[in-house]
């Protein structure tokens, strides 16, 4: 059979296989099953998988804590598909990977906002390579990572999963991660969420988005377009929500007209969990599951996930003439082409030794390196940091003696106790609808026994009581198959070397020099907590306050995460009350923020001597934090987001268009201190000083040419360090409003004391292309300014040049500048 002959071309194999398939076998390749929990297909595979399957979910409560058992579950399902179905088509198992392979004991990495704070695409590629090896060694050949969403609203619970606010930075980090994780066609990476997901009104994940077409193309599509053409990303996942009043999951305009026809994507489009069902359960653009399935499929959605609530009706739709079988074959060919490209037919099982991969010391070292390079020192008054070992420390705060709060919601730790419905909210929608109807009809007498009586339908008050009862039951813990019960137990079992800040500080300074008391929890006060803190502070020379929140879908103390958007973008009230009392004691305070969001901390920042944003630094987070505090590591992270002072300033981001006479002004609110952010995009301090000098650049550049610029960077301080140099361009006059500053290049540069290096950039003018008044993508001639600096606001060198010649119409932008670094 041709399709089993690896010497034949993929196209020949796909065509041969499609020609042998029944309609049911074809449609089965267009949906998904779960490999875990009460919904596991493992025990019913002979019935449910007899026609084959497209993708298999391995997420969340697949974790039993028994790695060998989990591996055997995957292998058992795959073995059945390969050896006992008629055609032997292997399944494509998928997981997550933005914080490491989502597998117990796999190396955990700092989350995406951390990675973006390194401004080091090479680190992203290295991390992707490690994640790839650990996933494939477990038997997983697809990953729903990374995010190419722009993170511009700190209320959005998933902003920590993004690479920040800027399309160029997001593209550079995301493309590099995809290159690492896909390797040589070893894994299918999935760029998500197409499109505008992080831009929902009010920061409500999955909510309404209104984005003008020009902004959509030039800003939000840019990172996805880069992933398509620079990294050959194999899959793209749709976003939840509605964009310009269209449900994304059923929008032909988005999934075909833009994604395929305009951006040039030829790979697989997979549904975010339950997003097709949302079109009728939530958004009401379809009447039922069948109509939703037909609409999504016609729009360009190849695969429904995590089940087949809607695509189960595609067979019926073809048989009734509502769909053509030839259209089924188009999506089917993409699924099969992906499986052939990944080599699944030749090697459907694990590739490598998982237990050997997770033991490699260099992987843990890489995780800590990313953590250290990602931490952003935003304030260091009087050079209070680094601290010396002779000081007596008061260690306080809700995150001072925690481990689990170092991990993101999509890490193995963060997802250890979740259930399918925590991710696939449509599953909960369906259950709630079904269970409520059943409860008020079939169990009416039972409701009477607890005092709920009604004629016809329950009253609104009764409905709320009944729904709360159902939700409580639906969300009850089902951990009978697990050898662990809590996330804390999970960390102890699979990451025994993970330490808290308290652990590492005591080891570094000695227990006698560290007086620890939490003072408060994230959301709640502790009886006598503030008095305990005051007592410790009064005895101390310096205070280290480890503050912030927790990212989780399910934890009661979660401040962010999927389905955990938060209108409070600052520290919770008990922490602020505690810090107010601490500052009254006039001891120097170092504040550390552990959180998945860029928290607004104006009060704490004003009164602290030093402030360090550590984000979610994963398994070696405590060591990384203490290494920064003690100077073993020189901080070098830069903010990938603008940090605002309060909710009312949202949105504030660097690449805003000019609004006022002074192009550098952000706003003109009544109170002048609200007109600027707390900390600007690209900001981050070091323990050394860097000197920029000798800028040289072209004076004129053709529209199809490159701007050449170079300058010198010197470490003029007392310790070695890394500087992230940033290049911005401003279009002085254009046919449509353009960014006040557009990031077009950056580089992380390592310098010893007194060392100088020459930094040279080549910036292609097609990077500056935009859609003009006629919605044509053009490079316009005109005068430009160039800015080079240590942040978007800390500009050290300025220049000007002119784009000459005629306006240039282009089909595709250039996505990256080129940089070279030479010794002087």
Strand content: 15-25%
Kindly provide the name of the CATH class of the largest domain: Alpha Beta
Q: What name goes with the CATH superfamily of the largest domain?
A: Glycoside hydrolase, family 3, N-terminal domain
> How would you write the strand order of the largest sheet?
1-2-3-4-5-7-10
Oligomer: single chain
N-end to C-end Cα span:
62 Å
How many strands, what sense, and barrel or not for the largest sheet?
A: 7 strands, parallel
Question: What overall geometry do the principal axes of the alpha carbons give?
Answer: globular
- Count of domain modules: 4
Number of discrete helical segments: 26
CATH architecture annotation name of the largest domain: Alpha-Beta Barrel
Helix content: 25-40%
Q: From the 3D structure, determine the CATH topology of the largest domain.
A: TIM Barrel
Helix and strand composition category:
alpha/beta
Mean pLDDT: 93
Kindly describe this structure.
The protein is of the alpha/beta class. 32% of the residues lie in helices and 18% in strands. The protein folds into four domains: 21-356, Glycoside hydrolase, family 3, N-terminal domain (TIM Barrel), CATH 3.20.20; 376-413 and 486-636, Rossmann fold, CATH 3.40.50; 420-474, no CATH class; 690-823, Immunoglobulins (Immunoglobulin-like, Sandwich). The chain contains 26 helices and 28 strands. Strands 1-2-3-4-5-7-10 form a seven-stranded parallel β-sheet. Strands 11-16-15-14-12-13 form a six-stranded mixed β-sheet, with helices on both faces.
């Amino acid at each position: 059979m041709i399709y089993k002959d690896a010497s034949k071309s993929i196209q020949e194999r796909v065509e041969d296989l499609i020609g042998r398939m029944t309609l049911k076998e074809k449609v089965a390749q267009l949906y998904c099953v779960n490999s875990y929990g009460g919904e596991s297909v493992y025990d019913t595979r002979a019935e449910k998988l007899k026609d084959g399957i497209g993708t298999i979910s391995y997420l969340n409560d697949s974790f039993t804590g028994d790695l060998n058992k989990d591996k055997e579950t995957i292998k058992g399902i795959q073995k059945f598909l390969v050896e006992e179905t008629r055609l032997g088509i292997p399944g494509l198992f998928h997981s997550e990977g933005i914080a490491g392979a989502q597998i117990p004991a796999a190396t955990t990495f700092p989350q995406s906002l951390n990675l973006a704070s390194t401004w080091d695409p090479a680190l992203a590629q290295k991390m992707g390579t490690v994640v790839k090896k650990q996933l494939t060694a477990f038997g997983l050949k697809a990953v729903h990572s990374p995010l190419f969403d722009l993170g511009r609203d700190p209320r959005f619970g998933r902003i920590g999963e993004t690479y920040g606010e800027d399309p160029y930075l997001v593209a550079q980090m995301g493309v590099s991660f995809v290159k690492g994780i896909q390797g040589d066609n070893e894994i299918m990476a999935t760029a998500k969420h197409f499109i505008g997901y992080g831009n929902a009104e009010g920061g409500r994940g999955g909510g309404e988005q209104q984005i003008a077409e020009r902004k959509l193309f030039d800003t939000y599509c840019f990172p996805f377009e880069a992933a398509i053409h620079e990294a050959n990303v194999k899959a793209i996942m749709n976003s939840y929500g509605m964009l310009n009043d269209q449900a994304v999951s059923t929008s032909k305009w988005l999934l075909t007209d833009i994604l395929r026809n305009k951006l040039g994507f030829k790979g697989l489009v997979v549904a975010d969990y339950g997003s097709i069902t949302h079109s009728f359960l939530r958004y009401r653009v379809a009447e039922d599951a069948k109509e939703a399935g037909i609409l999504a499929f016609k729009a360009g959605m190849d695969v429904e996930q995590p089940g087949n609530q809607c695509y189960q009706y595609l067979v019926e739709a073809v048989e009734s003439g509502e769909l053509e079988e030839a259209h089924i074959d188009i999506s089917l060919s993409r699924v099969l082409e992906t499986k052939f490209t990944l080599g699944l037919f030749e090697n459907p099982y694990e590739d490598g030794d998982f237990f050997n991969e997770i033991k490699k010391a260099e992987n843990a070292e890489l995780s800590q390196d990313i953590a250290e390079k990602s931490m952003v020192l935003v304030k260091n008054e009087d050079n209070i940091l680094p601290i010396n070992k002779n000081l007596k420390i008061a260690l306080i705060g809700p995150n001072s003696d925690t481990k689990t709060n170092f991990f993101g919601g999509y890490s193995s730790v963060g997802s250890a106790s979740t259930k399918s419905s925590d991710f696939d909210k449509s599953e909960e929608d369906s259950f709630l609808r079904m269970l409520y109807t059943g409860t008020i009809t079939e169990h009416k007498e039972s409701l009477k026994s607890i005092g709920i009586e009604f004629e016809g339908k329950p009253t609104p008050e009764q409905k709320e009581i009944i729904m709360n009862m159902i939700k409580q039951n639906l969300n009850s813990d089902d951990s009978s198959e697990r050898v662990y019960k809590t996330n804390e137990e999970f960390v102890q079992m699979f990451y025994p070397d993970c330490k808290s800040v308290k652990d590492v500080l005591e080891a570094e300074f000695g227990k006698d020099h560290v007086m620890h008391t939490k003072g408060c929890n994230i959301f709640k006060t502790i009886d006598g907590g503030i008095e305990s803190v005051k007592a410790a502070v009064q005895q101390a020379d310096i205070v280290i306050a480890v503050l912030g929140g927790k990212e989780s879908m399910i934890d009661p103390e979660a401040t962010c995460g999927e389905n955990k958007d938060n209108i409070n973008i600052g520290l919770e009230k008990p922490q602020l009350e505690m810090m107010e009392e601490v500052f009254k004691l006039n001891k120097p305070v170092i504040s550390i923020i552990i959180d998945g969001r860029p928290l607004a901390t104006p009060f704490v920042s004003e009164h602290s001597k030093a402030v360090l944003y550590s984000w979610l630094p994963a398994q070696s987070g405590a060591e990384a934090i203490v290494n920064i505090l003690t100077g073993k590591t020189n901080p070098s992270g830069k903010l990938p987001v603008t940090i605002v002072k309060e909710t009312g300033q949202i949105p504030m981001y660097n690449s805003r268009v000019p609004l006022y006479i002074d192009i550098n002004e952000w706003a003109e609110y009544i109170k002048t201190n609200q007109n600027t952010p707390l900390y600007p995009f690209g900001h981050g301090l070091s323990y050394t000083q860097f000197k920029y000098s000798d800028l040289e650049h072209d004076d004129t550049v053709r529209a199809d040419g490159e701007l050449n610029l170079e300058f010198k960077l010197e470490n003029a301080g007392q310790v070695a360090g890394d500087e992230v140099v940033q290049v911005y361009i401003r279009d002085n006059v254009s046919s449509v409003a353009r960014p006040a500053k557009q990031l077009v290049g950056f580089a992380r540069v390592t310098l010893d004391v007194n060392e100088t290096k020459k930094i040279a950039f080549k910036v292609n003018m097609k990077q500056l292309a935009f859609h003009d008044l006629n919605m044509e993508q053009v490079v316009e001639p005109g005068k430009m300014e160039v800015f080079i600096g240590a942040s978007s606001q800390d500009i050290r060198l300025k220049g000007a040049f002119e784009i000459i010649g005629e306006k240039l119409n282009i089909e595709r932008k250039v996505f990256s500048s080129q940089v070279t670094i030479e010794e002087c």
